[in-house]
Amino acid sequence: MAAMLILSCSEEQDFDQFDDLSVTPTVASSIFYLESDEEFINSVSAVNTFYAQTFNFDAFNEQFVAERLLEGTISYELENTTSKRLNITIEFLDEGGNILDVESLSIDPAPAQTETLEVAYGPGGKSLDILTNTSSFRVTGNNLGDATSISSEPEPKIIVRSAAEFLFRLK
Amino acid sequence: MRLGKLFFLTTFFGVASMWSQNKQLLYDFYEIPQSLMVNPGVKTSEKWHTGIPVLSGLYFQAATSGVTVNDLFANDGVDFTTKVRERLIEDMSKRDDFSTTSQIELFNVGFRGKNRPDDYYSFGVYGETDIIAYWPKDLAILAFEGNGGDNIGRSFDLSDLNLRGEMVNVFHFGVNRKMSNDLTIGARAKIYSSIFQFQSIKNSGSFTTTQGQNNIYANTINADMKLQTSGVQEIIDILDEDTSSTQRDLTSLFTRRVLLGGNLGLGFDAGFTYHLNPQTTITGSALDVGFIYNSKDIKNYTLRGSATNEGIDVILPEDINDLNNDLWQELIDEIEESVPFDDNDTSSYISFRPVKVYGSIRYDFGLAETSNKDCGCAINTESGQNGNLYRNSVGGQLFMMKRPRGVQAALTGFYQKRLGRTLSLKTTYTVDKYSLSNIGLGLNLQAGPVNFYILGDNLLGYRNVADSHYASLQFGFNIISWNDN
Is the distance from CB of A61 to CB of A132 less than 8 angstroms? Predict the structure, then answer.
């Protein structure tokens, strides 16, 4: 048995292979959801803008995330059951309030199909720097139609959905 | 990167050096005094024995029920990430565990009672490290693949995190009594002096990403998770200080805890040997039926609650007057409030020792000679039954051990050959979750009063150690005096 222990052998091992390990999970999460009924849009559309708000969003510029972001997509969905054409603008702002990028989506009055937009970032898409420097979003909703009509759809409203699906390098 | 590599390799070699507690070669190998440690009711023949301090019982046993070192690190030209994905992430299940058990006997002494020669007393101290971590399959997939892509809709089971470990010093005293020529029983009392302990064994919950009710995705977490630790924080604090006195402080801390200065516990072993007839024997034992009361240096961590996140939510006209522009931080605060992480829990807890149970049946044959003065047979020959030395024994053994995810069992067939009274060989074939081809060989050599034994498991694995699922080695030296009355 001692001889067996002494004569035991092993195939050649290469522990440096660990350096080649690539761990790149895909992380999916919603970003923001905006909903407004038509009555409200009519009530504040004297200047066409029924909603304008800037809110802080540090998800992408957190150091841990920013250093590991490889590529990904932000998806937007617009659903409109109101009687008017609407436009939603999303501005990506850095810490100083400077505009880094703008996405603008318009949708026809009901009955309109859901508008979708997928914006790619990283290789082949927009620069990842836009995201890693984004500190806040300014979301603006504009009424491109009248301010009196009411859609015949039940509970007419505009809905904006958005989500991100990104590839990160953990190792 | 360097830390990551260190962590991975440490974890993986934890897998590779998975120490199982089954000592099938030592069990009922009654020529070796340490067999008393796996069955306090084993047949004893010595007048007295003393283990050579620190060298009487060194036990190293390694196995893996899942991937081997060779599976991942063989220089085979296959992309390493592919090997990790296919052999580790996809192939291993949550039932696969990585564990390590090692024992070092500091001393072990036994002697026969002067007034009660049927009693054999033994006592000693040994240190034991026992760590088990089940493969956290779902959490590994979550880290490797993420919650997006094909994993939308998948529920990641948080109960996959299941681990337990401890380092303990054991003071023990046992009595082995020959009740009759047919029956020997024994029991051993144990005091556990804990050096550290940690466990996270009752986790539940899930993390799921599904289509949202309002938004595109909903991330939902339901968590009831807890990690209990005792004796760990003080060690971390000393290591964090990283001063010139770190080594001295650690030595001092370990010394104090080894000598009953840490958390304490109680336990016992019990066992028997019964001769069904002169050639057929059954045995059984239960080991480490005990607990440790952890009340010092406690730090527990909990993550408990549930939350669903669909991102920042603005509904008009309700939210038109909400001019707070820190909606993102508000969302994070809300989630943290719903699923709070608490690391300030210092409540005491009880940890149970991993109970082990052995059973065996042995058939002896090939009568060599009757007792002689060197075998202690005066104790075992009254009816002429048990003092007979048989050249051969064959039998089977069953081993069961309580683990966090249930009972772990092993079945062993063995053959033992005695060549006179100086040399005894035992070979075993064991089937368990780690291996279906585990062949072991044990040797006990008695040269005058000096006893040497060496027991090695899964010898076929030595053809390629890196590809072995199981390996063990135990050896030791004793001084034995046989009965001369």
Answer: yes
Helices (H), A82-156: 128-132
Residues B98-134 have pLDDT tens digits of 777 888 888 899 999 888 899 999 999 999 988 888 9
Residue carrying the six token digits 């993986």: B12
User: In the numeric block, which tokens belong to residue B75?
Assistant: 């220089």
Using a CB–CB cutoff of 8 Å, tell me whether B5 touches chain A.
yes
From B397's Cα to the closest Cα of chain A, the distance in A is 22
> A4 lies in a domain?
no
Residues of B in contact with A13 (CB under 8 A): 69-70, 73-75, 466
CA neighbours within 13 Å on the CB side: how many for B184?
Answer: 28
Return the pLDDT at B324: 64
Split at pLDDT 50, 70, 90, the class of B318 is confident
- pLDDT score at B56: 64
Q: Which two tokens mark B286? A: 């239960």
Neighbours of B117 (CB within 10 A): 15
Closest CA to A7 of B365, B462, B214: B462
Domain count, chain A: 1
Q: Which residue of A has its CA nearest to B328?
A: A57
- CB < 8 Å from A in window 220-239 of B: none
Decide if B473 and A15 are in contact by the 8 Å CB cutoff.
Answer: no
Would you state the pLDDT for residue B46?
Answer: 86
Q: Which residue shows structure tokens 């059973």? A: B359
Would you call A26 and B148 a contact, using CB atoms and an 8 Å cutoff? yes
- Helix (H), strand (E) at residue B424: strand B423-432
Please tell me the number of Cα atoms within 13 Å of A77 on its side-chain side.
18
- Separation of first and last alpha carbons in chain B: 68
Whether A9 sits inside 8 A of B316 (CB atoms) is no
Q: Which residues contact A150 (CB under 8 A, 6 or more apart)?
A: A38, A39, A42, A83, A156
Helix or strand run (H / E) with residue B445: strand B438-447
**Chain B residues 413-452 with a CB less than 8 Å from chain A:** 441, 443
For residue B465, name the pLDDT band (cuts at 50, 70, 90).
low
pLDDT digits (tens, 9 = 90+) for B127-153: 998 888 899 999 999 999 999 999 999
Mutate to test the interface with B, among A34, A62, A67, A73 (most CBs of B within 10 A): A34
pLDDT for B445 beyond 60 = yes
Whether B87 and B67 have beta carbons less than 8 Å apart is answered as: yes
Q: Is residue A23 part of a domain?
A: no
Of B217, B320, B327, the CB nearest to A30: B217
Residue B388 has pLDDT above 70, yes or no: no
| Per-residue pLDDT band at B329 (split at 50, 70, 90) | confident
What residues does each domain of chain B span? 2-482
* Concatenated DSSP letters of B5-73: HHHHHHHHHHHHTB-----TTTTT-TTSGGGGGT-TTS---EEEEEEPTTTS-EEEEEE-SS--HHHHH
Q: What is the pTM (predicted TM-score) of this model?
A: 0.83
Query: Which residues form the domain of A126?
Result: 29-168
pLDDT in tens, B396-425: 999 999 988 889 899 999 999 998 878 999
Chain B residue nearest residue A31, CA to CA: B311
Mean pLDDT of chain B: 85
Quick check: B127 and B170 in contact, CB under 8 A?
A: yes
Q: Look up the CATH number of the domain holding residue A45.
A: 2.60.120
